Amino acid sequence: MDRLDTDVIIAGGGLAGATLALALSRVLPSLKVTVVEAFPLSTDALPEDYQPSYDARSTALAWGSRLIFEELGLWDRLSEHATPIRRIHVSDRGRFGATRLSAEDHGQPALGYVADNRWMGLSLMRELQATAVQWKAPAEVLGMTPQPYGVSVAVKTGDKVAQMSAQCLVVADGGRSGLRESLGFQARHEDYGQNALIANVSTSDSHQFTAFERFTDAGPMALLPGGAPDRPGNQSALVWTLTDQALQALIKLDSECRCQRLQDRFGWRLGRFTRMGELSHYPLKLTTVAEPVRPGVALVGNAAHTLHPVAGQGFNLALRGLMTLVEQFRSAIQQGRSLGDLGVLGGYQQAHHQDWQQTVRFSDSLIRIFGQAPAPLAAARDAGLVGLDLLPGAKRWFARRAMGIGGRKPLISGQGAFAEGESAGNE
Questions:
Q1: Residue 103 within any structural domain of the chain
Q2: What single-letter DSSP state applies at residue 420?
Q3: Distance between CA atoms of 134 and 21, rounded to whole angstroms?
């Protein structure tokens, strides 16, 4: 085939897929990129009077993720509705163990941010409207067949199915899609035996831009600061780990009783819980794919891994992986190689593997260690938290993991405040 329909097909136009499309347009503008998205595109992209809903869902962005969005020219807009995390307080309910992280100690204005998902999506769409990225929406990728020139991808639009030729297919349609399995990838699922309950809550005391990681005998919970980015508010985003029985019991309660139940589990560090918004929940699993690449196709984002949300690492890991893939594509073009070549995609997997492995282990170990109640283990983890608070080297390591800081260099010359490897203060 002499001429391809496009160079890269991205299956999924959510946060991961849209970010990859924007990154490719910024770093490799000569590439033809097509995004296939199951839902229609929003027609109200960035209304000037946009205001977040109280029940809007949000994502924790590490400091390293801010640097990536700066590099892509998106951060100025995202920051309009991104609440800074200036302090992180990690504690073990009913025990003495605790550690505290402060952005000031690391010479940064924030350790991370909490951003409204819808605002992130609209901001990405506004930027993508000014690029050559093509969208097929609503549409669906049904399958892919390797070809000598790259891949032939079956795309369903309405009642019609057409074949599109491309160098590479990138699957970014989330962990619940059947496309990953239909393409033959084997995902490993480890059930935590619990559920994540997500809701926004209000408290009588201001959060003062502090995120709380609270480990209890019934499971971990997190409260992330929300509201205006320029003044401390009283709204936080809650991630609460609950068993099936506890979840069903909570759902049946009225709002006041739910707040009281949360008060009993979290404590009074934010004063009284005065409101709990709309609830959403889902079962918790650690999902990983050991081999996320094959000739002509790569998995990214939740299609490649789904982590426990309390540690706040999932999207940040995905974002770093997207930039690693873009870097690998750039090297392939410089070498005159096809983007779907297994050597190219294998290079992406190898380059991203250490970050992937360390982040998965870091996130999973927090949940498993702090989810255990036996007294000897509880005493040991409390001592570990105290030691983490007292030992500068260990605390810097923990802070760097939380901030998503590694050694990646900017792909776009002159973009971003500094490279990630230079952003952690004294090392």
A1: yes
A2: G
A3: 9
Total tally of structural domains belonging to the chain:
1
264: which 2 tokens? Answer: 């009993």
Average pLDDT value over all residues in the chain: 85
CATH number of the domain residue 116 falls in: 3.50.50.60
**Rounded CA separation 94/91 (Å):** 9
For residue 237, being part of any structural domain is answered with no
Which residues, at least 6 apart from 229, have a Cβ–Cβ distance to it below 8 Å? 79, 80, 81, 82, 83, 84, 113
197 located within any domain: no
| Beta-bridge partner residues of 9 | 34, 169
Structural domain of 340: 8-189+285-422
Please work out, in degrees rounded to the nearest 5, the angle formed at the alpha carbon of residue 361 by the alpha carbons of 340 and 21: 35
Could you please report the per-residue DSSP string of 278-298?
--EEEEEEEEE-S--EETTEE
Question: Per residue in 238-292, pLDDT tens?
Answer: 999 999 999 999 999 999 999 999 999 999 999 999 999 999 999 988 899 989 9
Is-contact 111 4, C-beta < 8 A?
no
Asked whether residue 327 carries a pLDDT value surpassing 60, the answer given is: yes
| Residue 319 forms part of a structural domain | yes
**Distance of alpha carbon 49 from the chain centroid:** 27
